[in-house]
Task: structure prediction
Amino acid sequence: MKNMKIAVIGANGKVGRLVVEEAVNRGLDVTAVVRGDNKTAAQHVLKKDAFDLTAADLAGFDAVVNAVGTWTPQTYDELPREVAHVADVLAGTDVRFIVVGGVGSLFVDKDHTTALEDTPDFPDAFKGVSAAHGKALADLRTRDSLEWTYVSPAANFVADGPRTGEYQLAGEELTLNSNGESEISYADYAIGIVDEIESAQPHIRGRISLVSK
Result:
């Protein structure tokens, strides 16, 4: 098996750093795409704003992981625009585009008519970021010349949770673990991201979700 080359955009973030660490530990050749000083274990660094990335910057990679997040009302609109920019750059290539997504757009019914973000108990504080992630997903669904995969975490996305080494792979519907909870740690989510990159049967042009066992 060849030594896969991946780039992680937003590598200095909590999810990005763990994806880099997981990939490096598996022997992948990793480039951290960061705006400031590199704080990751990546072997290579590309210091550049995501909006300034070009086709030349991302040529030669097997996969590009977008781990950019948005947490303030002033930056909500940046996320779907940033995902769209990178998607434009990668369109028409065989480079896979793995997007760290949101949970709010997961469906809570078998008919896929009601999303988690549409339910009465969905916190108001998360509606803005959920909508931003939803816009990014909606745009990706229109792209037939891009090998994208959108990866939703569980509802309770635990930043400092343990690395158990296990998770459930699910799809478009909110899935619960053996305790009846929707939960996953950042560390186990990172495992799922790298598993998807290395998978012999990748989920091309589709959304998957990850939840603890």
In short: The chain has a mean pLDDT of 96. Helices lie at 14-25, 55-58, 78-90, 127-140, 186-198. Residues 67 and 131 are 17 Å apart (CA to CA).
